[in-house]
Design a protein that fits this description.
Helix content of chain B: over 70%
Strand content of chain B: under 5%
Oligomer: heterodimer
Largest interface: A-B, 57 and 60 residues
CATH topology of the largest domain in chain A: D-Maltodextrin-Binding Protein, domain 2
Family (chain A): Belongs to the UPF0065 (bug) family.
CATH architecture of the largest domain in chain A: 3-Layer(aba) Sandwich
Shape of chain A: globular
Structural class of chain B: mainly alpha
Protein name (chain A): Tripartite tricarboxylate transporter substrate binding protein
Order of helices and strands of chain B: HHHHHHHHHEEHHHHHHHHHHHHHHH
Largest sheet of chain B: 2 strands, antiparallel
InterPro entries (chain A): BUG (IPR005064), Bug_dom1 (IPR042100)
Number of helices of chain B: 24
Keywords (chain A): Signal
C-alpha cells in the first residue's frame, strides 16, 4: 500500500518535472515578431534596435517581419489570428487605438496584452526656415487672418498631423488646407521645398532638419520645453487650453495575444523591461529624439486607455471623426 | 582634400571592405535576378543582421547588393522574358528577342557594360553635383509630380505594340489595380471588397510576377515542342567601337536615370521605361527595329536604372530623405548605427558621403567582373528544355511572391494575375502598360489630390500654378508636346508647313 503510494507519488512527481521544463523552457523556438510598418520607418528603427537586447534577456531568437499596410491593420490582424502561445509578438505603434473611431477595424489594443510600452515620440510643429511666422501664436494669427490658405502637411486620417490639428481645433481655431502625403519623408521634402507651410512632425523625424536650419520648430507639443530643442516654446504658451490633452505623443509598444499563458507573458514582460532599461538602448532612444516610458502591467493598460480617450475625444470635439467615442466604448477623459 | 581622397579610397584599400563589397555585388546579382527577391528586402534583412557590425562594413555590403541587385534583374529579363525587378521591365522588350535570336550572351555582355556605364555616370553626378541635384528635387511641387506621372503614363504610346487602344486599356487596368487599398487621405478602403488583406493594396511586384512570370510560363507552353534556339557564345563582350557608338545615348539615358531617381516615389523602374521611350524616339536607325532585338533598347533602360542608384543616394546623403525604398532602409540603418542622417551628415560625418561615392565606384568595378563571368553558362538557360524550365519558373514565382510580405493571399493574387495575364497575352495585350499603370496610377492619384488641396480645391488656382512656376511650365509643355507628337495633329501641321517634303 505504502509502496504503491510512493511509486504513485514518484510517478506523479516525475510527470510534473517532465511537464514543468516543457513550459519553463519558453522560448524553445524562435519567436515571430511582426512589425506592422515598413522597413526603415520610425517603428521599424526602434524595434530593430531594441530586439537584440530583448533576445539577450530572454535567451531566444526573434525573427523580425515587416507586414506593412492599411495603417498597421494588416500586421495587427495577423498577430490576433495566431495561436496565443507567445510565439507571435506585435511590435507596433499607437494606430490601433484609433481603429474603432476611424472605422478601420473593430479591435484596439484592449484586445491584446501589453508586454511593454517602450517609449513615445515628442511632437513638434515645424515650418520652413523662411516662413513668416516664428512661433505658434504667429502661426495661429496668420491662419486667422487668411483662413483656409495656409497649407498643412498631413499623413491622412488618423495620422499624427491630423490628430494634432484636431487637438488644436478642439481648443481654438486653425483653418488650413490639409495636404496629404504618404508619410513623414515626402511631407518634410515638400516642407523644405516650400510647397506646404507647416507640418506637425515627430521630433525624431524633424530634429536633424531643425538642427541644420532647414526647418524651424514653432512649438513643442508639450507643457514645457524639451531639452533636445532648447529655446523652442511649449505649445501651451500660445494655447494654454490644450494642456488638458498633454502630455501626448505617438508611442511604440510590444504586444501579444490576450490569451497567452501567464508565465509566458511574465517572461516577456521581464525581458522587455530589462531590455528597454538597457543603457545602450536608452542612449539610442535619446539620440533618436524619443522619450523612454518602459511601462508594463496595469500602468501600461492605464496609459493605453488614457491615450485613446484623450485622442478620440479631442478628435470628436474638433469634428475630425463622425462617431462618438462613447458609441465604441471609449470613456471621456 | 587628402581626407576626401582617403575616404574615397577607403573601400578600395581595406581588404575587409573590399571583400564585403565584392560579396554584396555578387549576391545582389542573383537576388536581383530572381523575381520577388528584391534589393529592398535583402537590405532590410541585412540591417538587423549587421546591427553589431561597424557601420562602414554594413554600408559596403549594402552598396554592393544595391548595385548588383539593380543589374541582376536584367538577367532573367533577357533569358526568360521575366524581369527580376520592376526596373528591368523595359530590358525584356529587346533583351528577350535577342536571346530568341541566339544572342543571349551578347545581350548580357552589353547590358553589363552599359549598367556599369550608367552606374559610373550616376556616381559621378552624385559626387560632383549632389547638393545642386538635391535642391532641384526640392523644387518639385505636388503638381509637378502629377505632371511627371502624366508624362510617364503617356509612355503607353510607345509601350503599346500594335494597338494603342489595347495599351490604354491595359494601363487603365493597371491604374485600377494600383488604387486598391486604403485611400491615402480618408483612410477608407477602396476596391477592397471588405477584405482586411486588401487594405494594404496590391504590391505592384505581386502584379509584376504574375503578369510576367506566371503568364509567360503559361504562354511558353504553347511552343513546348519548338526547337530550342542555339546560343552563339563567342562574341560576348561588346566591341569598343560598339560601346563608343552607344555612348551619347547612354549618357542621355543616364541623366534621365539620375533625375528620375532623385525624386522620392519615382525610381529606377520609371526611369528605365522613360529611357526606353527616349531611345525609341531619338534613335533613327536602330540596329534592329525596337521590340525585335534592338541593342539600343537594351542600352537605354540598363544605363538609366543603374544611374538611378546614384540619384537615389542624392537626397539621402544631402538631406536625410530617401530617394527610393532601398535608401529609406539605409537611412534606417544609419539611425540604428547612431548616425543622424540629415543635412548635417555631410558636415559632421563627411566620410559617409565620400566613402559611399568610392564604394559605388568599386561596386561597379565588381559588377563588370561578376557580370561578365559565367555568361556562357547562363546563356545555356535558354537552351534548357521547357519541361524543366517552366515548373522551375513557377516555383520561383511562388517563393518570390511569398517572401515579399510573407502573405499567402498575395501568392493567390499573383497566380490570379498570371491567369489574367495569360488570357490578355493571347488577345494581344501588352504587359508593360499594366505595370506602368499600377506604378503611376497611385502616384498620379496622390499627387493630384495634393496639388488640388494645396490650391484650396480651386481648379483655377491649380491651373495658374501649372503655368506660373517655371518647372511646372516646362513639364506642362512636355505633356502637351508628347500628346501632339503622338497624334496625327502634329503630322498635319508639319505637312502644312513644308508641303514639299511631305510630297517627297
Amino acid at each position: 500500500m505504502f509502496k504503491s503510494l510512493l511509486t504513485g507519488a514518484a510517478l506523479g512527481l516525475s510527470a510534473l518535472t517532465m511537464a514543468l521544463p516543457a513550459h519553463a523552457e519558453y522560448p524553445e523556438r524562435s519567436i515571430q515578431a511582426v512589425i506592422p510598418w515598413g522597413a526603415g520607418g520610425a517603428t521599424d528603427n526602434v524595434m530593430r534596435s531594441l530586439t537584440p537586447y530583448v533576445e539577450k534577456e530572454l535567451g531566444g531568437k526573434f525573427i523580425l517581419n515587416n507586414r506593412p499596410g492599411g495603417t498597421a491593420v494588416i500586421g495587427s490582424t495577423h498577430v490576433m489570428q495566431q495561436r496565443p502561445n507567445g510565439y507571435t509578438v506585435l511590435l507596433g505603434a499607437e494606430n490601433p487605438q484609433l481603429y474603432k473611431v476611424l472605422k478601420l477595424a473593430d479591435f484596439d489594443y484592449a484586445d491584446f496584452y501589453p508586454v511593454n510600452i517602450i517609449g513615445q515620440n515628442v511632437v513638434v510643429i515645424a515650418a520652413n526656415a523662411d516662413a513668416p511666422f516664428n512661433n505658434m501664436a504667429e502661426l495661429m494669427a496668420a491662419a486667422k487672418a487668411n483662413p483656409d490658405t495656409l497649407r498643412m502637411g498631413s499623413t491622412g486620417a488618423g495620422g499624427l498631423p491630423s490628430t494634432v490639428s484636431a487637438m488644436i481645433n478642439a481648443v481654438d481655431e486653425l483653418k488650413v488646407r490639409e495636404v496629404t502625403f504618404g508619410g513623414d519623408g515626402p511631407g518634410i521634402t515638400a516642407l523644405m521645398g516650400k510647397h506646404i507651410d507647416f507640418m506637425p512632425l515627430s521630433l525624431a523625424a524633424a530634429r536633424e532638419l531643425v538642427r541644420s536650419g532647414k526647418l524651424k520648430a514653432l512649438a513643442v507639443f508639450a507643457t514645457e520645453e524639451t531639452p533636445e530643442l532648447p529655446g523652442v516654446e511649449p505649445i501651451t504658451k500660445s494655447l494654454p487650453a490644450i494642456a488638458e490633452y498633454l502630455p501626448w505623443g505617438p508611442f511604440w509598444g510590444a504586444f501579444v495575444h490576450k490569451d497567452t499563458p501567464d508565465d509566458v507573458k511574465q517572461k516577456l514582460v521581464d525581458a522587455y523591461a530589462k531590455a528597454v532599461a538597457n543603457p545602450e538602448f536608452q542612449g539610442f532612444l535619446k539620440n533618436f529624439g524619443a522619450q523612454s516610458l518602459n511601462l508594463n502591467g496595469a500602468e501600461a493598460e492605464e496609459f493605453l486607455k488614457r491615450w485613446q480617450s484623450v485622442t478620440t475625444w479631442s478628435m470628436y470635439k474638433a469634428k475630425a471623426i463622425e462617431i462618438s467615442p462613447d458609441s465604441v466604448g471609449i470613456a471621456k477623459p | 582634400m587628402s581626407d576626401t581622397l582617403s575616404y574615397l579610397l577607403m573601400a578600395w584599400s581595406d581588404p575587409q571592405l573590399l571583400m564585403l563589397t565584392a560579396l554584396g555585388t555578387f549576391a545582389g546579382i542573383y537576388i536581383g535576378a530572381i523575381p520577388g527577391l528584391s534589393v529592398t528586402m535583402a537590405v532590410s534583412i541585412l540591417v538587423s543582421f549587421t546591427f553589431s557590425w561597424d557601420v562602414n562594413d554594413a554600408l559596403a555590403l549594402i552598396v554592393g547588393i544595391f548595385i548588383g541587385g539593380v543589374y541582376g534583374g536584367s538577367r532573367s529579363a533577357i533569358l526568360l522574358n521575366i524581369p527580376g525587378a520592376p526596373s528591368s521591365v523595359a530590358t525584356a522588350f529587346d533583351g528577350y528577342p535577342l536571346a530568341q535570336q541566339g544572342e543571349a550572351g551578347r545581350a548580357i555582355g552589353l547590358s553589363t557594360v552599359m549598367s556599369v556605364v550608367g552606374g559610373i555616370v550616376g556616381t559621378i553626378m552624385l559626387a560632383s553635383a549632389a547638393p545642386l541635384i538635391g535642391e532641384l528635387a526640392l523644387r518639385f511641387a505636388p503638381r509637378d509630380y502629377f505632371l511627371v506621372a502624366a508624362i510617364g503614363l503617356l509612355l503607353v504610346g510607345s509601350l503599346a505594340e500594335g494597338s494603342l487602344a489595347k495599351g490604354i486599356f491595359a494601363a487603365g487596368l493597371g491604374a485600377v489595380i494600383g488604387l486598391v487599398g486604403m485611400d491615402p487621405v480618408t483612410a477608407q478602403g477602396r476596391f477592397t471588397l471588405g477584405q482586411v488583406e486588401l487594405m494594404g493594396g496590391i504590391h505592384y511586384v505581386v502584379l509584376m510576377i504574375g503578369l510576367f512570370g506566371v503568364a509567360e510560363a503559361f504562354y511558353q507552353l504553347h511552343n513546348l515542342d519548338s526547337p530550342v534556339v542555339r546560343q552563339k557564345v563567342d562574341k560576348i563582350l561588346p566591341s569598343f567601337a560598339m560601346v563608343l557608338k552607344f555612348l551619347p545615348l547612354s549618357i542621355r539615358t543616364s541623366i534621365i536615370g539620375v533625375i528620375v531617381g532623385v525624386l522620392p516615389g519615382v525610381g529606377g523602374d520609371i526611369a528605365a521605361l522613360m529611357a526606353y521611350d527616349h531611345a525609341k524616339r531619338t534613335v533613327k536607325n536602330p540596329s534592329r527595329p525596337f521590340g525585335k532585338g534592338a541593342y539600343e533598347g537594351l542600352v537605354a533602360p540598363e544605363t538609366a536604372n543603374s544611374a538611378a542608384v546614384g540619384g537615389a543616394y542624392v537626397p539621402m546623403l544631402t538631406l536625410g530623405m530617401p530617394g527610393d525604398a532601398v535608401t529609406a532602409v539605409i537611412i534606417g540603418a544609419l539611425v540604428v548605427h547612431g548616425l543622424n542622417p540629415g543635412p548635417m551628415l555631410m558636415v559632421e560625418n563627411p566620410h559617409i558621403f565620400y566613402f559611399t561615392v568610392g564604394n559605388l565606384l568599386l561596386a561597379n568595378v565588381f559588377l563588370m567582373i561578376f557580370g561578365l563571368m559565367g555568361i556562357k553558362l547562363f546563356a545555356k538557360f535558354v537552351e534548357m528544355p521547357k519541361a524543366v524550365l517552366i515548373p522551375l519558373i513557377l516555383v520561383l514565382c511562388v517563393v518570390g511572391t511569398y517572401s515579399i510580405n510573407s502573405s499567402m493571399t498575395e501568392v493567390y493574387w499573383m497566380l490570379g494575375f498570371g491567369v489574367l495575364g495569360y488570357l490578355l497575352k493571347i488577345f494581344g495585350f501588352q504587359m508593360g502598360p499594366i505595370i506602368l499603370g499600377a506604378i503611376l496610377g497611385p502616384l498620379m492619384d496622390t499627387s493630384y489630390r495634393q496639388a488640388m488641396s494645396s490650391a484650396g480645391d480651386n481648379p483655377v488656382e491649380l491651373l495658374q500654378g501649372l503655368v506660373t512656376s517655371p518647372l511646372s511650365l516646362i513639364l506642362s509643355a512636355a505633356v502637351v508636346l508628347i500628346l501632339l507628337g503622338n497624334t496625327p495633329l502634329l503630322k498635319k501641321l508639319k505637312s502644312k508647313l513644308s508641303p514639299a517634303s511631305a510630297r517627297g
